[in-house]
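In response to the reviewer comment on reproducibility (Comment 2.3), we provide here a single inverse folding case reported in full, input and output, so that an independent group could reproduce the run without further information from us. The structure tokens appear first.
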């Protein structure tokens, strides 16, 4: 069973108040959300008598018989056991899917002698389409928890909820300020919220207080730049581009991936045929596909084909061919597309 849509952590607390499932699978690349979800399951398991804990880390090669031994041997002290299965690479390796399917088949609807807590890192959309994982999603004996960090538009609301936990609040402009300074780094975002709780008493905060306390800990990456362009968010694109330049990111690499997105938009917006069929043939992650759909419906000052020609020219400038500043030209191109 998939607990939630994009972020299953919001429904986890309510679920843990009832009977525990025999298997939990947490996947996501954001460490804060994964840590908090796993800690909540551990605490619920301890409260319900799962006193013994065994940790298995899947390396390559990994003997999957260890999982069978851990779940069939019972607790040394006659109680219940929590078995943590950690998959750092998101890859199960040989025998993994079969072992997990066997475990799923032998499990009942509620945890009895053992409880499996599985954490899957670097678990992308391709891995989520595998047969064994889809069986977990559709099974009543397993709970799948996706830990997806909030996007920039949802981040102020997430921050407001964290502030409310410590009986504080902030106006929209202060929340936007925090969001722009912690984007892409939820661990640091949580630390900044906790800092506000230490510096100021409970109650409402104002923008001046937030500015004085919050550090710029945003973790900018190329994916944010691509998303900002497809979303038509010019301020975010400009801010991310400037940040990546300060971080010393290679411009040719940025241009390569931006040109890939623009080339896909050229194909998607070409006359004739079904845009949805074209999109499905591109085999891209669902979130990127949705951004492409939105971008295709948005009116731009120049066509995507013209943008492809422009980015080819900017690429030549980045390699010293021609006259002009490629960073300035890229910012100007974004102005035409956002």
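Designed residues, in position order:
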């Amino acid at each position: 069973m998939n607990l939630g849509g994009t972020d299953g952590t919001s429904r986890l607390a309510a679920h843990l108040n009832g009977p525990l499932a025999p298997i939990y699978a947490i996947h996501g690349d954001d460490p804060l959300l994964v840590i908090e979800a796993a800690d909540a399951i551990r605490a619920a398991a301890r409260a319900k008598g799962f006193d013994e804990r065994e940790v298995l880390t899947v390396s390559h090669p990994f003997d999957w018989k260890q999982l069978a031994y851990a779940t069939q041997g019972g607790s040394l002290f006659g109680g219940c056991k929590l078995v943590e299965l950690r998959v750092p690479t998101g890859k199960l390796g040989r025998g993994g899917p079969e072992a997990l399917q066997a475990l799923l088949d032998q499990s009942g609807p509620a945890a009895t002698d053992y409880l499996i807590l599985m954490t899957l890192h670097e678990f992308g959309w391709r891995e989520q389409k595998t047969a064994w994982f889809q069986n977990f999603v559709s099974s009543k004996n397993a709970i799948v928890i996706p830990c997806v960090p909030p996007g920039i538009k949802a981040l102020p609301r997430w921050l407001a909820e964290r502030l409310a936990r410590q009986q504080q609040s902030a106006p929209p402009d202060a929340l936007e300020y925090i969001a722009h300074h912690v984007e892409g780094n939820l661990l640091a975002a949580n630390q900044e919220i906790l800092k506000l709780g230490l510096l100021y008493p409970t109650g409402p905060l104002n923008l001046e207080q937030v500015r004085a306390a919050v550090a710029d800990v945003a973790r900018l990456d190329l994916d944010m730049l691509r998303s900002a362009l497809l979303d038509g968010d010019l301020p975010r694109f400009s801010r991310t581009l400037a940040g990546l330049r300060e971080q010393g990111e290679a411009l040719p690499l940025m241009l390569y991936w931006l040109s890939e997105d623009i080339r896909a938009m050229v194909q998607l917006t070409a006359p004739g045929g079904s845009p949805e069929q074209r999109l499905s043939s591109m085999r891209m992650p669902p979130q990127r596909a949705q951004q492409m759909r939105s971008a295709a419906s948005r009116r731009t000052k120049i066509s995507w084909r013209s943008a492809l020609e422009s980015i080819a020219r900017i690429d030549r400038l980045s390699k010293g061919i021609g006259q002009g500043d490629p960073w300035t030209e890229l910012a100007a191109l974004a102005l035409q597309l956002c």
